[in-house]
Amino acid sequence: MSDLLPRVASAIVMVALALGALWLGGRWFVAFWFIASAAIVWEWLGLIGSQRRTLSSGISAAVLAVAAGLVANGALEFAALAAVLGAAVLAILERNAKPIWAATGFVYAAILLLSVTSLRLSVYNGFNAILWLFAVVWGTDILAYFGGRLIGGPKLWPQVSPSKTWSGFICGVTGGMLAGLVALIVQVPPTQRSIVAFVILGLVLGAVSQGGDLFESSIKRRFGVKDASQLIPGHGGFMDRLDGFIAACGAAALIGLLRGGSANPATGLLLW
Question: Which of 3-17, 73-87, 212-226 is predicted least confidently?
C-alpha cells in the first residue's frame, strides 16, 4: 500500500496532464511532449554518469525544440534529420565518457517526441490515434501490474526484471487490447474500422509496450540504478513512466507512416 498510494496519485496527475494536452492539441501538445523528451535526455545522461550533464542536456533540449518545431510545420523528414545531427553532437560532447550511450539516449528521446507529435498533428484522426494509443499502453501497464501481483507465477525475464511475470505480461497485453477496443468503438465510425485488425494491432503494441519496459529495465541494470530519477513520486522518472509508451508509440507511428505517409500517419494507423 505504501508503494501503491503515491503511484496512483502521481498517475492521476500525469493522466490528467496528458489528456489535457491531447485535448488542447497544437503547440500545447508539442510543448508537453517536448518537456517529457528533454527530461528523458537529462535522466539518461545522469544514468550513464555524464560529466557534462548540464551542457549536454541544454544542447539536446535546443535540438529537440528545433525538431518539434519542424514536425509542427509538417517537416517530419527534416525533424528526423535534426534528431540524427543532435545524436552526433551529443556523442561529440560526451566523447570522453560514453559517446555511444549518450547518442542512444538522445535518439530514444527523439523517437518519443517525433512519433507522438507526428501522430497527433496528422491532417486527420490525430486525436483518435493518440487516445487509442493511450488506452492500449495504460491498459497494458495497469493490468500487467495488478495481474502480476495477484496471480504471480513464472518470471518473464528474471535477469532483467525480477518482478515481472508471464501472468502479468499476458494480463497486460490482453487488457491493453481490450482497452484499445473500447476507445476505438467510442471514437472511430464502424464503417472505418476492422475489429480483427485492432485485436491484432492492440496485442502487438501491448507486447511492444512491455518490451519497452524490459528495455529500460535492462539499461538501468546495466548501470546499476533502480530508477532513472526521482522526479515522479512512486514512479521514479520520466523514463520509468514512459518506457512502454515510447516503444509502442514509435512502433505505431512507423505503421502509420508506412500506410498513411508523413502527412497523415494517424489515418494509416487507425483505418483498416
Answer: 3-17
**Cα–Cα dist 81/166, whole Å:** 39
- CA atoms within 13 A of residue 38's CA, in its CB half-sphere: 20
pLDDT value at position 7?
72
Half-sphere exposure of 95 (CA within 13 A, CB side): 4
DSSP string, the chain: -TTHHHHHHHHHHHHHHHHHHHHH-HHHHHHHHHHHHHHHHHHHHHHTT-SSHHHHHHHHHHHHHHHHHHHHTT-HHHHHHHHHHHHHHHHHHTTTS-HHHHHHHHHHHHHHHHHHHHHHTSSSSHHHHHHHHHHHHHHHHHHHHHHHHHH--SEEETTTEEEEEHHHHHHHHHHHHHHHHHHHHHHS-GGG--HHHHHHHHHHHHHHHHHHHHHHHHHHHHHT-S-S-SSBTTTBSHHHHHHHHHHHHHHHHHHHHHHHTTT-HHHHHH--
Whether 247 shows a pLDDT value over 90: the answer reads yes
Distance CA 53, CA 162 (A): 30
Greater pLDDT, 9 or 44: 44
Q: In terms of C-beta density within 10 A (0-12 exposed, 13-18 middle, 19 or more buried), how is residue 159 classed? A: exposed
Q: Is the pLDDT of residue 83 over 60?
A: yes
* Domain parsing of the chain, residue ranges: 4-270
10-43: string of b/e by CB count within 10 Å (b at 16+)?
Answer: bbeebeeebeebbeeeeeebbebbbbbbbbbbbb
